Amino acid sequence: MWPSKPRRSSKIPRSQERVVILGASGGMGRSLALKYAQEGARVCVFARRELELSQVAEECRAAAPKTKTNSAGERVLVVRGDFTVVEDMVNLRSKVQDAWGGLDTLIVNAGVPTFRPFCELSGLEVRGRTFTPTEPDAEAVKRAVQVVDEVTRINYLGPVVSAATFIPTLTSSMAPAIVLMASLAAVLPAPTLSLYVGSKAAALGFYQSLAIEHPWITFTAVLPSTVRGEQFFDNAADGGKVRGQDPESYGLSCDEVVRGVLDGVDKGKTTLWLPSRGRTAFFLYWLFPGFITKIARKRYGYPAAD
């Protein structure tokens, strides 16, 4: 058997860990922030929505254990901004360095979904091989490209800006880590999610390459399947709605994902399949693509192929 890798917490106790969470104003980001705060880490929450972000910060302060030397409030930072905007990210880095002198853990969590079949973005109605109208005009294609630009900006450019801004800052850590909250969709295609799948796959490949370029940083890619109760589903970049099965009927809970993330990062895992059967589905897709495709069509309420 291979010798077990020492846990990261043996180098950085949670009470000394400095964590930045991007996209922390709700959903998974909020849940991660609360868990880290509860366990005594110093937490910086970052997002665009100021009111929601302030509420998450107050929850973190209330959840954090009180110490004699530091109040909970001093261990929770709040910075408002957009992770696709370079100036906002440099400002975030400056505030973290001023407050803590460096960073141990960067969690890249923000993202946006899409739920419409791709050709619908160009105004086409699709029935098998029949399109109405028969072709999109230039303006229709431009409208589709606008959605592509928005999804790419958030799901790919944001993680790129984050990495460029913070990788050098992590030299201050004894055990630096970057966590990319990706998706099972980054490795398993699905109908109606084409833009989401493509952008998440791009970010995943980018971070996997960074892991080779910077072996002194532990890069953890989190590949959860659908998560229940996420505000995520109400903010599709293409204005679409979830199709097929209701995510509340089969998805993971935020708590399940959070527990998996903290444990996986502590163990130094490079890929987290949540749940573990996601890895099985990934391999089955390459062995029996027709089988997985049929399941995907059913789950997302997409018509059978003609």
From TrEMBL:
Keyword entries, A-Z: NADP, Oxidoreductase
The keyword Mitochondrion belongs to this UniProt entry's keyword annotation: no
Alphabetical list of Gene3D superfamilies matching this protein: NAD(P)-binding Rossmann-like Domain
Pfam families reported in the protein's UniProt record: adh_short
GO cellular component: membrane
Highest rank taxon of the organism: Eukaryota
Gene Ontology terms, MF aspect: oxidoreductase activity
InterPro entries, per database record: NAD(P)-bd_dom_sf, Sc_DH/Rdtase_CS, SDR_fam
Keyword flag Oxidoreductase: yes
PANTHER family named among the record's database cross-references: DEHYDROGENASE/REDUCTASE SDR FAMILY MEMBER 7B, DEHYDROGENASE_REDUCTASE SDR FAMILY MEMBER 7B
Known function: Putative oxidoreductase.
Family under the similarity heading: Belongs to the short-chain dehydrogenases/reductases (SDR) family.
Name of the protein: NAD(P)-binding protein
Originating species: Polyporus arcularius HHB13444
Top-level taxonomy: Eukaryota, Fungi, Dikarya, Basidiomycota, Agaricomycotina
